[in-house]
Write a structure and sequence with these properties.
The complex is a heterodimer of chains A (575) and B (92).
Chain A: E1 4-12, H1 17-25, E2 29-35, H2 41-45, E3 57-63, H3 66-69, H4 71-77, H5 84-101, E4 105-111, H6 133-148, E5 154-157, H7 159-166, H8 168-171, H9 174-180, H10 186-203, E6 210-213, H11 224-227, H12 239-256, E7 260-266, H13 269-278, E8 289-295, H14 299-310, E9 317-320, H15 324-333, H16 349-355, H17 366-369, H18 371-387, H19 391-397, E10 401-406, H20 412-421, E11 425-426, H21 434-442, E12 446-455, E13 458-471, E14 474-482, H22 491-505, E15 510-514, H23 522-530, E16 540-544, E17 556-558
Parallel strand pairs in A: 1-2, 1-3, 3-4, 4-5, 6-7, 6-9, 7-8, 10-17, 14-15
Antiparallel strand pairs in A: 10-12, 11-14, 12-13, 13-14, 15-16
Chain B: H1 2-13, H2 39-57, H3 63-68, H4 76-91
Classes of the chains: A alpha/beta (575), B mainly alpha (92).
């Protein structure tokens, strides 16, 4: 399978050749590395004409050791007293340099500082203000995050975690340090690369969305059908019970971050649900699961049913099951599903889950927090849909309200998320960083609207994006994005109608656009094809803004005033 | 010893680009004109070797010893022989 190309600038204060070699050989992305010789940190950061900044990159990694940033810190390693005010100024300068180059890449990553060699001496002095390495290192890291944590698209990475996971003795290589000025071992670098890939994947919307769980010996100890719900091991004064309880707590926290939970268990449904509802130590409740398949059927089939019900792709799924047989079956039948090898000992489950980086997020939006409820509402809608005769009858019962708004600052994170995560109903599949998004929106001849929707089951939040670029009285439809959760209930038609009205009000006669085919956006093709705009031979389309109106049923639509922002005289086109 | 050398070469291969990866055969050149390895690659190989010898056999191999015996390390086979002899002699 062809890997996605990711360009990365690497600036470091130590020899990073082994890191680059491992990065280039890593499997998740095709890393295109642009590097400068090591120990050229400030020379590169302060030189806006440096070759590195000539071309915009996806990632800039600035990886330094504390003594390379602050010579005052170096005094501590020689057992001399250091002045923390001077260290603070050194960190300030470093931060200002980082801010100056932030614009040259989509994201900037700064691993926090750890020592380049293990330090075991001066236990009593470790946290003395004037002499303590640990005190001043903690201070530097704290101050670094204080200075940079409000910067968008800039992430401080936790190097201490890599150290901990690797173990200090195998994280460092004194031989490599003295021979090549490489402080860290290849095992340490592999940890970094794994986290880097997952972080970049999550920013680009590639992280997992749905966690499907087994019950017996996965969420609780014991087989409920055999021992009865009262004898299941969850919580209590029992080491295994506590382990299962902690595991459930962590799963619940994933749900709160927007991961959707579902159950796939071979059990009697009534017995299993009774256990979930009645066991006093259960952390997860039936409310936490968007849907479930508790039956005796093939788990691979059940997983397919679940993803179809939720309108998600198999590549969004993680499946956790204690049974190697079930894991192997799902892995073989559904290779797109991530099936981690759950440890044999349940006391290791919690740590194991915390090390799975596939759910990592850079931030949590309001939509993430309520995603589970949105999908639950969606399940109810589907059930109602199945009871009704026609789609239009069904939509009429929903009391659907659609709110179209000009882009606002507070909606930008969600809009950027939609840009980067929506695959199916997406005309051009443009992926934009927040910076690129803001830049595009500011262009006078560009217009971008967010689409919200709510119905009698709940509020969907922002679920769509519509954008155009206008030139010489012709509007080019640049983005037409709709979350797959809400496709097929006339929202997409409403967006097209709004676009036509907007253009008519602003004397724009024609609307044109181009469907950019990807592996995943055939849903968008089908919609445009249904409107007779494109077919297999023709992906470009053009239609008059006064084209015959589509039937929008009885949807309530709230729109912005059409005159708010349009400048048709400028000749700036979207790329 | 074969196993330790094999493991060390596998670790080195993780760093090398596809076209430079070493096959684990006795005749595979390591040092000299016929070798495709650069000095940094050799350093990495010997660091892996030193680590694996310590972990698996509790043997110590210094970089100076390697440099002094570089003539004996032209191929994978001669490296294995050098290490076997060295640690056999140390036992005696």
């Amino acid at each position: 399978m062809k890997k996605n190309k990711v360009s990365i600038n690497i600036i470091s204060s130590f020899n990073h050749a082994n890191f680059v070699s491992l990065l280039k050989n890593s499997s998740n992305f095709d890393w295109e590395v642009n590097e400068v010789n090591y120990n050229q940190v400030f020379q590169t950061l302060t030189n806006s004409n440096a070759k590195m900044w000539k071309q915009r990159s996806n990632v800039t990694l600035i990886w330094t050791t504390p003594e390379s940033i602050s010579s005052e810190f170096q005094k501590l390693q020689n057992k001399n007293e250091a002045n923390s005010d001077i260290i603070k100024k050194d960190v300030d300068y470093f931060c200002s340099c980082i801010r100056s180059i932030k614009k040259y890449s989509d994201i900037v990553l700064v691993p926090n500082w750890i020592l380049k060699q293990p330090n075991e001496t001066s236990l009593a002095f470790a946290y003395s203000k004037g002499f303590g390495l640990e005190y001043n290192l903690s201070f530097m890291n704290y101050y670094l995050s204080e200075q940079l944590n409000k910067e968008k698209n800039l992430y401080i990475l936790n190097s201490s975690k890599w150290l901990l996971n690797c173990g200090a003795s195998s994280a460092y290589s004194s031989k490599l340090w003295y021979l090549t000025k490489t402080p860290f071992s290849n095992n340490f670098f592999k940890q970094v690369i794994s986290d880097l890939s997952n972080l970049y994947g999550s920013i680009k919307g590639l992280s997992k969305k749905l966690l499907i769980l087994d019950l017996d010996d996965t969420l609780w100890g014991g087989i409920v059908g055999e021992v009865g719900w009262k004898n299941l091991r969850i919580g209590g004064h029992d080491h295994l019970g506590e382990a299962f309880r902690d595991f459930q707590i962590q799963i619940k926290s994933l749900k709160n971050q927007g991961i959707i939970l579902a159950l796939a268990s071979k059990n009697d449904e009534v017995t299993a649900i009774k256990a979930i509802n009645n066991h006093p130590e259960m952390i997860l409740s039936m409310e936490d699961f968007v849907t479930h398949r508790i039956n005796w059927e093939d788990k691979a089939k059940n997983i397919i049913d679940i993803v179809n019900e939720l309108n998600l792709g198999l590549q969004s799924v993680v499946f956790l099951d204690d049974s190697p047989f079930e894991r192997a079956r799902v892995q073989e039948a559904l290779p797109e599903v991530l099936v981690p090898e759950l440890p044999k000992d349940p006391t290791d489950y919690n740590t194991f889950l915390s090390k799975l980086r596939c759910f990592d997020k850079t931030h949590v939006t309001d939509e993430d927090k309520s995603r589970s409820n949105l999908y639950k509402s969606e399940s109810k809608r589907i059930k109602l849909k199945q009871q009704l005769k026609s789609l239009s009858d069904w939509i009429k019962t929903l009391n659907l309200t659609i709110v179209i708004e000009n882009i606002k600052n507070e909606n930008t994170p969600r809009a950027v998320q939609l840009f980067n995560k929506t695959n199916q109903m997406n005309l051009s599949t443009r992926r934009l960083s927040e910076q690129e998004f803001n830049h595009w929106v500011k262009v006078d001849s560009n217009n971008l609207w967010t689409i919200r929707a709510a119905d009698k089951f709940g509020d969907y939040g922002i679920i769509g994006i519509l954008s155009i670029s206008t030139k010489n009285n012709i509007a080019t439809l640049v983005d037409f994005i709709l979350s797959c959760r809400v496709v097929g209930r006339c929202i997409e038609e409403t967006m097209i109608e709004f676009l036509k009205e907007f253009c008519q009000e602003n004397n724009v006669n024609k609307i044109k656009g181009k469907y950019k085919k990807t592996d995943k956006n055939s849903l968008c093709y089908n919609f445009l094809n249904k409107l007779q705009l494109i077919d297999n031979n023709q992906y470009s389309f053009e239609f008059p803004s006064n084209k015959k109106k589509l039937n929008l049923l009885n949807i309530t639509i709230k729109k912005p005033t059409y005159k708010e922002k349009i400048n048709v005289s400028k000749n700036i086109m979207a790329k | 010893m074969k196993e330790i050398v094999k493991r060390s070469i596998e670790e080195l291969n993780e760093l090398l680009p596809m076209q430079k990866k070493l096959s684990i055969e006795e005749k595979t050149p390591l040092v000299g004109e016929k070798s495709s390895l650069e000095s940094i690659d050799l350093v990495n190989l010997f660091v892996c070797l030193e680590k694996n010898l310590k972990e698996k056999k509790n043997h110590t191999l210094t970089f100076d010893e390697i440099l002094q015996n570089i003539e004996h390390l032209k191929t994978v086979g001669s490296l294995e022989l050098f290490l076997t002899k060295k640690f056999e002699n140390e036992k005696k």
